[in-house]
Design brief:
Layout lengths: L1 H69 L2 H14 L3 H38 L5 H8 L2 H16 L3 H25 L5 H30 L15 H36 L2 H20 L3 H19 L3 H38 L2 H10 L3 H16 L3 H54 L5 H22 L6 H22 L1 H15 L1
Helix pairs in contact: 1-3, 1-4, 1-5, 1-6, 1-7, 1-8, 1-9, 1-10, 2-3, 2-5, 2-8, 2-10, 3-4, 3-5, 3-8, 4-7, 5-7, 6-7, 8-9, 8-14, 9-12, 10-11, 10-13, 11-12, 11-13, 11-15, 11-16, 13-14, 15-16
Length: 517
């Protein structure tokens, strides 16, 4: 009896800790995304749509180098540290951390040198624009900082200590914005190259401060974690073994994604007959429309981050029922929220594009992609849980298939249909990759899709909320009316969903409230 009460108490405490961490990450993510959106709007007005297009191409190369620099070590550390702490092997954590830091620093410096000295070749042959050389070289300096910082990030996720990551991300974003605002004031009349150099300089400085903060945070936390003391040796083998499939997956996926981003402006230019126009359309899509669509995903990103150690721990202990329960609840929450978000964006897409960016083109792109936001969000959640279930190989296979299909479709359609053809490719791709990963997730967790409760009811609520909001607010052309319309839409959606799921509410009352009486 006493053991049962202790066990139940531990479960409750673990759930409370998970909810607290989810709330902290959600609030932090909301703040960061709000700051990031303001920052992105500022940058877009500073460099224009063409500058945003070039910035996105530079970012694509940079993300590829980040993938090489980090090499899957962050996720590997989360998995390994979670397993060791779950099994009570705290001493092994010390050697893992030392090995991870040495490995990350070595890889980070190597990739930095490759990008710094290879910037002219990359700018001219990959990006097709010599203006990218200086920004690429400035960004290269940040890679060792980011590589080391990712090790501590993975450690703190395993420790369920999200405060560190929240503060680190906040410090990073505030530093980036401060540096860019200061430099932009000094060179307000500069060309696109100079302005983009100022933007990426903020990123490099912020990564350095984030690394310093991470090191200090770990020094303060290691005593509480029970891993204090001298580290006799470094353990690199288990890290490489665990990180290798993750790194391979990310190498291939990011390389194909980078190749795709290099290809898109070129194929659009064949349709428009202008490289500048192609960069503007590419920048409007990748630098403006997509960040808007992913802006509300703060809670889902927090959920994805926290689910990795939870699923890993349950999987390591062979707790199949717990794993199945985690997957079911995560999918139910994700689909319910993402269908709601997609509905709001579908209804107010054109107004958002005009109000936020003053661009009808961005509004059109949002309206086309809004209906597939549930697939985008579900793929994010599935990817996190598949890592926890050690199914990276399957995810790599799906990512490779998806990327190959995207590239083929881009070559076949975009030169003849322009940006509309690429939007079609994105729709097909997101539906495909999300479906493949969700099928693998359900199969691995021993569960299945609940079409009625997870899809049909939320979609029906979306239709009802859209019709009702249209009748109550016929036109929304200002920020206030759009905000009021969105709040009203969400309220109607929530009320309708509660009514349709009344059977669940009634079951809860019978099971817990009446029974307890």
């Amino acid at each position: 009896m006493i053991k049962s009460q202790i066990r139940n108490g531990c479960v409750i405490l673990r759930k409370l800790a998970f909810l607290k961490n989810a709330m902290l990450l959600t609030i932090t993510s909301l703040i960061l995304r709000s700051l990031g959106m303001v920052f992105r709007i500022y940058i877009s007005r500073m460099v224009g749509e063409e500058g945003m297009g070039l910035y996105q191409l530079i970012s694509s190369v940079y993300f590829l180098m980040i993938t090489f620099a980090q090499s899957g070590i962050s996720v590997s550390m989360t998995k390994l540290v979670t397993e060791k702490l779950a099994l009570g092997d705290n001493q092994k954590v010390k050697s893992l951390l030392k090995g991870a830091v040495l490995l990350s620093l070595t890889i980070g410096i190597t990739v930095m040198l490759v990008l710094f000295f290879g910037a002219p070749l990359i700018a001219n042959m990959w990006i097709g624009d010599a203006r990218a050389v200086l920004p690429l070289r400035i960004l290269s300096v940040s890679l060792p900082f980011m590589a080391v910082c990712s090790v501590f990030s993975g450690y703190f996720v395993a420790r369920r200590n999200v405060v560190h990551n929240c503060v680190s991300q906040m410090l990073e974003q505030v530093t980036r914005m401060a540096v860019v605002f200061m430099l932009a004031t000094l060179i307000s009349n500069g060309d696109i190259t100079t302005l983009l150099a100022a933007v990426v300089a903020g990123n490099t400085v912020s990564e350095f401060f984030a690394m310093c903060y991470s090191g200090i945070s770990f020094a303060l936390d290691k005593r509480r974690a029970g891993i204090n003391g001298r580290i006799a040796h470094s353990s690199i083998g288990p890290i490489v073994k665990t990180a290798a499939p993750i790194a391979a997956s990310r190498y291939l996926a990011t390389a194909l994604h980078t190749a795709e981003n290099m290809l898109v402006p070129t194929t659009i230019a064949r349709y428009t007959g202008s490289r500048e126009s192609a960069l503007s359309q590419f920048g409007a899509l990748k630098g403006m429309a997509l960040p808007i669509l992913f802006f509300p995903s703060s809670f889902l990103n927090a959920l994805s981050t926290l689910l990795v150690p939870e699923v890993t721990s349950a999987n390591a202990k062979k707790q199949n029922a717990t794993t199945k329960s985690i997957v079911d609840r995560a999918c139910a929450v994700t689909l319910t929220l993402s269908i709601m978000i997609g509905g709001v964006f579908t209804m107010f897409a054109h107004q958002i594009g005009l109000i936020v960016y003053g661009s009808s083109q961005v509004g059109f792109m949002i309206s086309v992609l809004a209906p597939i936001t549930p697939f985008m969000y579900m793929d994010t959640i599935a990817d996190g849980m598949l890592k926890g279930l050690n199914k990276q190989t399957g995810a790599l296979k799906h990512s490779s298939i998806d990327s190959a299909i995207r590239i083929v479709l881009i070559i076949a359609l975009v030169p003849f249909y322009g940006i509309r053809g690429f939007l079609f490719v994105m729709i097909v791709s997101n539906i495909l990759i999300s479906s493949l990963n969700m099928h693998l997730l359900f199969k691995s967790a021993g569960t299945s899709m609940r079409w009625g409760g997870w899809v049909v009811k939320p979609v029906l609520c979306t239709v009802i909320a859209t019709i009702a909001t249209r009748l109550m607010i016929p036109s929304a052309n200002s920020l206030i009316t759009v905000a009021l319309g969105a709040v009203l839409w969400c309220a109607i959606y929530g009320i309708t969903l509660a009514v349709l799921r009344f059977d669940c509410v009634l079951s809860f009352i019978k099971k817990y409230l009446i029974k307890n009486k």
